[in-house]
UniProtKB/TrEMBL annotation:
Keyword flag Lipid biosynthesis: yes
Keywords: Acyltransferase, Cell membrane, Lipid biosynthesis, Lipid metabolism, Membrane, Phospholipid biosynthesis, Phospholipid metabolism, Transferase, Transmembrane, Transmembrane helix
The organism of origin for this protein: Thermus tengchongensis
EC number of the protein: 2.3.1.275
HAMAP family the UniProt entry points to: PlsY
A molecular function (GO) term: acyl-phosphate glycerol-3-phosphate acyltransferase activity
GO annotation, biological process: phospholipid biosynthetic process
UniProt subcellular location: Cell membrane
Subunit structure: Probably interacts with PlsX.
Physiological role: Catalyzes the transfer of an acyl group from acyl-phosphate (acyl-PO(4)) to glycerol-3-phosphate (G3P) to form lysophosphatidic acid (LPA). This enzyme utilizes acyl-phosphate as fatty acyl donor, but not acyl-CoA or acyl-ACP.
Protein name stated in the entry: Glycerol-3-phosphate acyltransferase
Transmembrane region(s): 47-71, 78-100, 106-125, 137-157, 163-181
Length: 201
């Protein structure tokens, strides 16, 4: 029991590392005061351009993947491995280093899935990206990817613990995108390529 708590705690701490905040800080920008205030790669793209955004995306994917990879390397499998993946995503969404605030968990979820189930990840990725490019809404692509991953996990006959893990990650993506959903319904959601503006403190 104690070892399981330790592993989950370490995964949460990996996920909590706020790459978006750290990268933006090197440019003299507090990303939490720009655009949507989100610490993820999409807001970094709008504020600082593609270079910094790619760095943030890479590290957000990496921290999810490395948490699962380390857990698997020490012999963790099954439901506990799914718990490790979820802990990393929760760390990103509710970072201990940011007062339990954070990002939306899409890149980190994808990183965990790349290690948990590379085939499922590589089927899901083009679906989400295609929707994003067709609609020019990153949020629409992200949520579609979450749904696609869940449906594919069921269709491909993945074990119940994996289906449950993927479904929970998809639910978290929808929860963290609830404001985006409202803006999509209102027609006020930002499209891919729009610049971000500095917000008042």
């Amino acid at each position: 029991m104690a070892s399981a708590v330790l592993v989950l705690g370490v995964a949460y701490l990996f996920g909590s590392v706020p790459a978006g905040v750290l990268v933006a800080r090197t440019y003299g920008v507090d990303i939490r005061r720009v655009g949507s205030g989100n610490i993820g790669a999409t807001n970094v793209l709008r504020a600082l351009g593609p270079g910094p955004a790619l760095v943030v995306a890479f590290f957000d994917v990496f921290k999810g993947g490395i948490a699962v990879l380390i857990a698997r390397a020490v012999g963790i499998e099954g439901a506990l491995l799914g718990g490790v993946a979820l802990a990393a995503v929760l760390g990103h969404n509710y970072s201990v280093f940011l007062g339990f605030r954070g990002g939306k968990g899409v890149a980190t979820s994808f990183g965990t899935l790349l290690v948990l189930d590379p085939v499922l990840a590589l089927w899901t990725f083009p679906i989400g990206v295609s929707v994003m490019l067709l609609t020019r809404y990153v949020s629409a692509g992200s949520m579609t990817g979450g749904v696609a991953a869940t449906v594919l996990a069921l269709a491909l006959g993945r074990p119940p613990w994996e289906v449950f893990t993927v479904a929970l990650m998809a639910a978290l993506i929808f929860f963290t995108h609830r404001e985006n959903l409202r803006r999509l319904q209102a027609g006020t959601e930002r499209r891919l390529g729009e610049k971000a503006e500095v917000r008042d403190a």
